[in-house]
Write a structure and sequence with these properties.
This protein has 17 helices and twelve strands. Helices cover 48% and strands 15% of the residues. Helix 1 runs antiparallel to helix 2, helix 2 (54-61) runs antiparallel to helix 3 (66-84) and helix 6 (108-118) packs antiparallel against helix 7 (124-145). The relative contact order is 0.11. It is globular, with a radius of gyration of 27 Å.
C-alpha cells in the first residue's frame, strides 16, 4: 500500500511538472513569435530578423508531439500579429486578440514543417530539404494573410529589410517575397548550426550560397537607367484636432503650398483626406486649389475624403487639380482598411464600432487603377494609404507606364506609435521592386521620398513637423524582373510544398500497401 501511494505521489509530481512545462512552453512560444517585430520600424533592428526566428524554431523542433508543435506555432503566430500590429489597439481594442488568434492559425503548417524537418538529428538530405521547405512554409503563411480580407500584407518579414541596399536589390528580382525567403532560410541555417552538428556543413553551404547569390544580383543585375528628374513638393500640415479640423487642415495646406511660390515644382502632393468635401459640390474649394496651382506653377494632387455628389457613398479619391481646376484625372481607392474604412461582414461584426474606432459607414471601392498625366509628359500612379502594402498594385502601375508612384497617406490616429515609420518604409520596397521613385506624402508624418532603387531621397518629414518640402526626384526607365515576372518566389514555394506533400503521400501509400497482413489468431482446441 505504501508503494502504491508512493507511485501515485510520483505520478502526481511528474504531472504537475509536466503542466508547468507546458505552460512555460506556451508562454515562450508567444514571446518568441513576438521577437521579430523588433526588426521593423520604429526599433528598426533590421539585423535581428536573421536570427529572430531561431528561439521559436528551436522550441518547435523540440515539441514532443505534432499537436504540441501546432499549438506553439499558433501561439507564436498570434504573438507576432499582436506585436507587429499593437498600434491598432486604439482602433480595435480587445478585438485585436481574436483577430490575432485567427491569423495565428496560418503558422500551424510552418510549425509542423519545422518539427518534421529540423527535429532530432537531421541528416544532410533532410537538412537541405529544410532549407527549402521551411522558408517556403513561412512564405505560404505570408501569401495567405496578404489577402485583403485577412488584413493585407502588413508586417511581411522581408519588409524589415527596407533600408538594406542588398535586400532592396533582391526585391527588384522577386519582390519582398524573395527577401522573406532569404531571411527565413538564414534563420533555418542558424538552427541547424546550433542544434544539429551533423548538418553544419549544409547550413554553412546554404549561407555561403545565399551570399554568393546576393552578391551576383548586386554586381550584375542592371540598375534602373536614369531618365531625367522631377521636382516634387510634399505638403504636410501636421496634427490638427477639433470640430473644424477639416477646415483648419485645408487652410494650413493652402498656406504651406502658397509658400512654395518661386520654388518651381513640377508637382505638389497633399496627403490622404487632405480635402474634406467633394470638389464638385464645393466650387469655392475647387477655385482656391486652381489658384494655388496657378501661383506655384504646378498641378496639385490632393485627396478627397467625402461623399460624392455624382454617386452614392463616401470615397477616398486622388484628384489632380491644375490652373483651370480639376483636370478630370481621378483615382478612387480600391483596397480599404478592414475596420478602419469598412467592417467585414458588418451584419455579424458591426458591434466592433461600439468597442473601438471602427468605421461607422463603409467607404466605397474604386473600379480600378488609374494613370495620370502631368503637363511635362511624366505619368504618375497614385496609391492611397494602405495600398502601398500591396506589391501587386505598384507592380501593375509600373507595368502600365507610371514613371512615378505617389502614395497619399494619413496615420494621424496612430501618431505616437510605430505605425508612421512602418508605413513610410513600405514605399522604399515598392520603389525597389518597380524601379520607380515613390513619394510618400502624409498629413501628419512620416513623409518620405525614395529613388528608383529604394534609396532615400532628401530628409524625412517627422510626425512633429508642419511644413512643405521640395525634393529632386530622379526618374528611371526600364523594367525590373519583379515587374516582368511578378511573385515567382511565391509560386515556386507553393510548388515545392505541393511536391513535398505528394512525395509524403506516395510514400505513405506505398508503406501501407507493403505492410504484412495480420496473422490469423490461433485456433482454440477443446482443451483450451
Amino acid at each position: 500500500m505504501v508503494a502504491e501511494l508512493s507511485g501515485r505521489t510520483g505520478r502526481g509530481a511528474r504531472g504537475g511538472r509536466g503542466a508547468r512545462t507546458r505552460w512555460w512552453r506556451a508562454a515562450g512560444a508567444v514571446a518568441a513569435g513576438a521577437l521579430p517585430s523588433l526588426a521593423f520600424p520604429a526599433p528598426a533592428l533590421w539585423w535581428l530578423a536573421y536570427v529572430a526566428l531561431v528561439p521559436w524554431m528551436l522550441l518547435l523542433r523540440s515539441a514532443p508531439t505534432g499537436r504540441r508543435a501546432a499549438l506553439e506555432g499558433w501561439l507564436g503566430g498570434a504573438g507576432f500579429i499582436v506585436a507587429v500590429h499593437h498600434w491598432l489597439l486604439p482602433s480595435l481594442h480587445v478585438f485585436l486578440i481574436p483577430v490575432a488568434a485567427l491569423l495565428g492559425l496560418l503558422w500551424i503548417p510552418w510549425a509542423l514543417l519545422v518539427r518534421e524537418l529540423l527535429g532530432g538529428a537531421p541528416a544532410p538530405g533532410r537538412a537541405a530539404a529544410a532549407l527549402v521547405l521551411v522558408p517556403a512554409g513561412w512564405l505560404l503563411s505570408e501569401l495567405v494573410r496578404s489577402w485583403q480580407g485577412l488584413g493585407g500584407p502588413w508586417g511581411l518579414l522581408g519588409a524589415s529589410q527596407w533600408q538594406v541596399p542588398a535586400a532592396l536589390r533582391l526585391a527588384s528580382v522577386g519582390g519582398v517575397w524573395l527577401v522573406s525567403l532569404l531571411v527565413v532560410a538564414v534563420n533555418c541555417a542558424v538552427v541547424l548550426a546550433v542544434a544539429a552538428p551533423g548538418a553544419r556543413r549544409v547550413a554553412v553551404a546554404a549561407v555561403a550560397g545565399g551570399a554568393v547569390l546576393t552578391g551576383a544580383v548586386w554586381l550584375w543585375l542592371p540598375r534602373p537607367e536614369p531618365a531625367g528628374g522631377l521636382r516634387v513638393a510634399v505638403v504636410q500640415p501636421g496634427l490638427l484636432d477639433g470640430a473644424d479640423s477639416a477646415e483648419q487642415r485645408f487652410a494650413t495646406e493652402e498656406r504651406l503650398t502658397a509658400g512654395l511660390e518661386g520654388t518651381r515644382p513640377d508637382l505638389v502632393v497633399w496627403g490622404e483626406s487632405s480635402v474634406g468635401a467633394d470638389l464638385a459640390a464645393r466650387p469655392d474649394l475647387s477655385r482656391r486649389l486652381a489658384e494655388l496651382s496657378s501661383r506655384v506653377g504646378a498641378p496639385l494632387l490632393v485627396n478627397v475624403d467625402a461623399r460624392r455628389s455624382d454617386r452614392p457613398g463616401i470615397y477616398k479619391s486622388s484628384v489632380l487639380v491644375g490652373p483651370q481646376g480639376p483636370t478630370g484625372d481621378r483615382y478612387d481607392k480600391m483596397r480599404l482598411v478592414p475596420f478602419g474604412e469598412y467592417v467585414p461582414a458588418r451584419s455579424v461584426l458591426g458591434w466592433a464600432t461600439s468597442v473601438g474606432k471602427a468605421a461607422g459607414e463603409d467607404r466605397m471601392r474604386g473600379a480600378g487603377p488609374v494613370i495620370m498625366n502631368l503637363p511635362d509628359g511624366v505619368r504618375i500612379g497614385p496609391l492611397v494609404c494602405f495600398e502601398t502594402a500591396f506589391p501587386d498594385m505598384s507592380r501593375h502601375l509600373a507595368g502600365e507606364g507610371a514613371g512615378l508612384l505617389v502614395a497619399q497617406s494619413s496615420t494621424s490616429t496612430f501618431q505616437h506609435s510605430w505605425a508612421p515609420a512602418q508605413h513610410a518604409s513600405l514605399s522604399a520596397l515598392r520603389a525597389a521592386e518597380t524601379g520607380r521613385p515613390t513619394v510618400h506624402a502624409t498629413l501628419t508624418g512620416v513623409s518620405a521620398v525614395f529613388g528608383p532603387s529604394g534609396e532615400r531621397i532628401g530628409g524625412v518629414l517627422p510626425t512633429s513637423s508642419s511644413t512643405a518640402a521640395v525634393y529632386e526626384v530622379p526618374l528611371a526607365r526600364g523594367t525590373t524582373p519583379f515587374v516582368r515576372f511578378g511573385n515567382w518566389p511565391g509560386a515556386a514555394s507553393v510548388a515545392a510544398l505541393a511536391l513535398y506533400c505528394a512525395v509524403r503521400g506516395a510514400r505513405a501509400v506505398r508503406v501501407a500497401g507493403s505492410a504484412p497482413e495480420p496473422s490469423a489468431p490461433p485456433a482454440r482446441t477443446a482443451r483450451g
